[in-house]
Amino acid sequence: ATLIRREDYQAPAFWIRTVDLTFDLDPAKTLVTAKMALERNSAVAHGPLRLHGEALNVLRVLINGESVSFRQDGNELVIDNAPDADFALELRNTCAPDKNTTLNGLYTSGGSFFTQCEAEGFRRITYFLDRPDVMAVYTVLLRADKAKYPVLLSNGNLLESGELPNGRHFAKWHDPFPKPSYLFALVAGDLVAREQRVRTRAGKDHLLQVYVRRGDLEKTEHAMNSLIASIVWDEARFNLPLDLERFMIVGVSDFNMGAMENKGLNIFNTSALLASPATATDADFGRIESIVAHEYFHNWTGNRVTCRDWFQLSLKEGLTVFRDQEFSMDMAGGASARAVCRIQDVRNLRSAQFPEDSGAMAHPVRPDSYVEINNFYTTTIYEKGSEVVRMYQTLVGRAGFEAGLKLYFERHDGQAVTCDDFAAAIADANPGSALTTRLDAFKRWYSQAGTPHVQARGAYDAAAQSYTLTLSQHSPATPGQPDKLPQVIPVAMGLLSHEGQALTLHLQGEAAAIGAEHVLVLEQPEQSFVFINVACAPVPSLLRGFSAPVILDDGLSDAELLVLLQHDSDAFNRWEAGQRLSLNRILAALRSGAALQLDDAYLGAMRAVLRHPQLDAAFKELALTLPGEGYIAEQVEIVDPQAIHAVVESAQKQMAAALREDWIAAFEANQVMGGYTPDPVSSGKRALANLALSMLVLEAPRAQDSVWPGRAYQRFKDAGNMTDRLGALAALVNAHAELADSALDRFHELFKDDPLVVDKWFALQGRVPEQDGKTFARVKQLTKHADFTLKNPNRARSLLFSLCMYNPAAFHRADAAGYVFWAEQVLALDAINPQIASRLARVMDRWTTLATPYRSAALEAIRRVAAKADLSNDVREVISRALA
Ligand code: B3K
Ligand code: ZN
C-alpha cells in the first residue's frame, strides 16, 4: 500500500480525447473493447504509457491497428514505446461482474448489471488513465441478451438500438460532454421507468426517467417530484440549467453509498430513491429529496467542472452539499422550517464530523495524503466542506456568492480544477469584501484539520454604556499537525436585553448603528469588539445560525441561556440554548458522579417550550430531544459510555415523569388528519407526537399505566403511514414494553417482502437501549437470521452499524464482547466488500479517549484486526491510523 501525497501531483503524460467502448455483457465473463484516441501531454517529458487496471484479463493491445508489446507492473499495464504523435489505442479485456462483491466497477445485483466508478472503479472495467483530470468523450455500445436485459443504458443520448442474432440486442449511447472516467456508467437489466417531460427556461425539452425493478414503480413518484423541483431550483437560484436531452435515475439494492452522479445516468441506492407512505418515514422522504437534489446539482458542481485530483474532492462534495442544504431549506419554506433544517444539519455535523475531526482519521477538508481514496469520502470532506462554502457566502453575502459561482463557471466550465480555483473565483467576484481582504488566512479552512475552539467573554461598563466582547480561538493538535494558525471565523451575533428585547448594535469607531444583527470576523488569537450606546447589561447571542463550524464556549449562565431559549430572534440559537441547558446538567452529573436530579427551572423551561402556542411542532421536538450520547462523549476527557448512557436514561425518565401531562397534551394536539404528505408541518407534528408517545410508554411502568402502552400498540397496528407505525413500534421496543416482541414479529410478518422495511426492522433492534446485555445478545442472534447477510450493504449497515455506531452502551461492554464481535464482523466484511468493512472499522477512531477497562480491550480488538495478513488497503489504512 502506497501513500499518495497531494504535493506529488503531476499532470498525466497522455490525454485521452475520445473513447469508444463495446460491452458484450455476460455475468460470468463480460468482454470489453475500448478504442481510444490518445495524445501526449506536451508539457510532460517522454515516457511510457501507464494504464490503470484491476481484476482484469487482458486479451489484446493494439496501437494504430498494430499489435504492440506491453508489460504488467503491479496494477498497471505499461506500453514502453508509445508513439509521440497522436495515436489510436485498442484494448480488449474481460472482467467478471458476478464475482464482484466489492460493488466497485461492473457488478451484478438482482440479475441486472450496474457500475460504480468513483473514485477508481473504472479501472476494474478496462485499462485506462483512471484519474479525474483526464476527460474524454464517450461512445458506448452495449450488447446483451434481450430477454434478460431488455433495458440497456449509458451516459448521454441514445444514438441507436436494435436486434442482434441469438436473442441478443444492442443500444448505442453518446455523451457529448467530455468527462472523467469516474462519471462513466452503464446499466443493463429488466427495469421499468417512470417518465416525465419538462421544458426548461431556455425552451428546451428534456426527458426525465426513473428506472426501477418491476413492482417498485409506484414508489418513484417522490423521487421524480424531487428531481423536477431540483431542476427548477437550480435554474432559479444559480441560473444553472439541465444540459442533457435525457436525465436518468436508476435504483439498485446493492450499493455502497447513497447515490452516484454519473453524467445523465445517476445510480441510486434504492434506500435513497423508493418511498411510499406505507413503507417510508418522513425522514426517508426528506433524505430522498436531498439526495436526488445533491446528485442532480453535481451535474454542474462536479461534472461540468470537476476535480483535478482526489485531494480536491471537497471542491465538488462540500459545494454540492451546501447546494443541497440550501435547496432543502428553500423547499421547507418559512423561517422556522428553515431553522429546523439548519438544526438538523448542525446536529449531524456535531455528532459525526466533530468526532472525526478529533480522532485518528482527522484530516483537513483538502487532505494532504491518503492510501485509499475511498476512505476519504468523509463527513469532513462533505459536511465540514459545506460549512466552509457557507462561510464564503456569509462573508460575501448571498448575491456576492452567486456572482462568485457565476465567475467560477465562466472560468472553469469543462475543466478539472482545484479548491484554490474556487476560492479565487469567489474572491475575485467580490473585491474588497471581508473574504477577499483575508483570503490566504481564510484558506486555512482547507489545510488545517481539527475543530477550532472559540471562547467568548463579555464585560458591560454601565457608566460608559459600553459592552466589550472578547473572542479568542485555538485549534487543537491533530495527527501530523501539532501547531495551528488562527482561522478566519465569521461570528454572526446579536445582543438581547435580559427581558429579551433585541438591542441595536453600534460598534465603537463606526459612524452609525448597524441594526440588530452583525457578522464579526474573528481572525486573531484574541480580539475585542466594543459596542457603544448599550443601555443595559446585554445577553450575547453568538454564532447565530451556526455561522462557523467551531466549538463555542460563551460562558453564559443558566439565567442567560433561559433568556435566549425564550426570546432569541434566531431560532437556531434558541434551540442551542436549550441543548446547552441540558448538556450542562448532564456534564455536571458525569463529573460529580452523583445521580442526575433535573431542577424545576430546567423542567419548567422545557415545559414552556412544549406548551408554547406559537412554536412549531418540529422545533419543539428538536428542542426536547436530549443531546446524543456520542455528542456528550465529545465533551468529556475520558469517555465512560455506560456512565453517559445511565445519565441520559435518567434524564429521559425524569422528563417523561415530570412532563407527563404535557406529553399527553402534545400527543393529542399533534395528530395529523387526512391523507399523508411529508410536508414540514405534518412531519413536524408526527415527530413530536412520536416523541410524546415514547415518553408516555417509558413512563408507564412507574405511573402504573397500561393505557399508553396499549395505545401505542393500537397505533402501531392501525397506523396509516410508516412514520406513525415505526414511531409507535420504537416507543414500545425502546421502553422494553411487554408488547414489544409481539409488535416486532407482526412488523416483520407484514413487511417481510420489502427489503428496505426489513432493514428498518434490523436497525431498530440494533439501537434498543441496552438492558442487562439483552440488546447485544439480540444483535448477535440476528446475525443468524435468515434475512441477514453481509453481502448487501444496506442490510449489513442496518444491524452492525446500528449497534457499533449508534448504540454505545450496548457496544462498549466491560467484558469486551462488543469489540470481539466488531473485529469478527470487520474481517468477515473485508473479504466481501472493503469499503463497507472500512466504514465499520472506523467506529474505533476514538478508542484512545475510552475509560478503563474499555480502552485496553478496544486496543486488543484493533490489534486482532491488524494482525490479519491480507487486509484490504481500505481497512489497513483505518486500522493503522487508529494504532498510530
Ligand atoms: N460522489 C458519490 C460518492 C462516491 C463514493 C465513492 N466511494 C456520491 C455523492 O457524493 O454524490
Ligand atoms: Zn456528492
Task: Supply the key terms.
884 residues, Zincin-like, Neutral Protease, domain 2, 21% strand, alpha+beta, 8-stranded mixed β-sheet, Immunoglobulin-like, binds zinc ion, binds (3S)-3,7-diaminoheptanoic acid, single chain, 40% helix, 5-stranded mixed β-sheet
SSE diagram, text form:
Elements (H helix, E strand, L loop, with lengths): L3 E2 L8 E11 L5 E11 L8 E4 L4 E7 L2 E2 L3 E3 L2 E4 L7 E9 L9 E5 L2 E5 L18 E11 L5 E4 L2 E7 L4 E13 L5 E4 L1 E9 L5 E9 L7 H18 L7 E7 L6 E2 L4 E5 L12 H16 L8 E2 L5 H20 L2 H23 L11 E2 L8 H34 L3 E2 L1 H10 L10 H4 L1 H4 L5 E9 L4 E9 L14 E8 L5 E2 L14 E5 L3 E6 L7 E4 L8 E3 L4 H10 L3 H22 L7 H12 L5 H8 L4 H5 L7 H18 L1 H10 L10 H20 L7 H12 L3 H13 L5 H12 L3 H12 L7 H9 L10 H14 L1 H4 L5 H14 L3 H8 L12 H13 L6 H11 L1
Parallel strand pairs: 2-12, 18-19, 19-21, 22-24, 25-32
Antiparallel strand pairs: 1-23, 2-3, 3-9, 4-8, 5-6, 5-9, 7-8, 10-11, 12-15, 13-16, 14-15, 17-18, 20-21, 25-26, 26-30, 27-28, 27-29, 27-31
Helix pairs in contact: 1-2, 2-3, 3-4, 3-5, 4-5, 5-6, 9-10, 10-12, 12-16, 14-16, 15-16, 16-18, 17-18, 18-19, 19-20, 20-22, 24-25, 24-26, 25-27, 26-27
The site of (3S)-3,7-diaminoheptanoic acid (B3K) has 12 residues, from strand 20 and helix 2.
Cofactor: Zn(2+)
Family: Belongs to the peptidase M1 family.
Pfam family, one: Peptidase_M1_N
